Amino acid sequence: MTRETPNRVVSLVPSLTESVVFLGAGQRLVGRTRYCVEPAGALAHVPTLGGTKDPAVDDIVALRPDLVLVSAEENRIEDVERLSSAGLRIENYHPRSVEDAAVAMLRLGESLGEAEPAMELAERCRRAAALVRDGLERSRVRTFCPVWRRPWMTFGKAVYVADLLRTVGCENIFDDGESDWFEVSLEEVVERRPALILLPDEPYAFRPAHADQLRRAGLELPIVFIDGKDLSWYGPRLPGALQRLAGLVAGAV
User: Fold this and answer.
1) Which of 4, 14, 227, 237 lies deepest, with the highest CB count within 10 Å?
2) What percent of the chain has pLDDT over 70?
């Protein structure tokens, strides 16, 4: 049985909020998190309902949205279960690759009744990924990319950001990690001999002082600061992110 097109949408995922607007359904948003800030200037009419980890569940339920967008990676299972138990329609997104991200846009477009722009976006994502892969001129660069500090944390091979980095020419030095996200020591990083370090500005805002700390630990190698949204926000920014990251990697080594 085909579900009705939702008229009242709550998004608890910043990249999905951006995608909803891009696909032409921004006016149907009735709730977002405080981290849902893109596209800039397009969300002033949408109330904020807490954060990704601490959404205002009771307020969301009171809004009676037709659809709530969540992510298995960004939102807590207990919050999602409370929303589901209240009878709300939940769609959970968890892409683990660039191709998964394209498929996620197709699914979102179908749910919103915006299949045509979603198909165009998915095709743009696939073309950009193919173009970047075809343009790789050397073997992948051994790369360390932390996502947190105190403790230092990074990721294994089975998450979206890992596949994104593989696509743009990186080889994650922790691809053998046994979990998706885990703590590492700087001693381990030094032992694995990366040739490049990427420092995103979210979820942890890495700064030049942190690059200095890495160098003092013995990591005298190219360190590049990158836009964390390019690293982890799938959706309309993906084609450009692939090109930007590929250019930064190629220019650093």
Assistant:
1) 14
2) 99
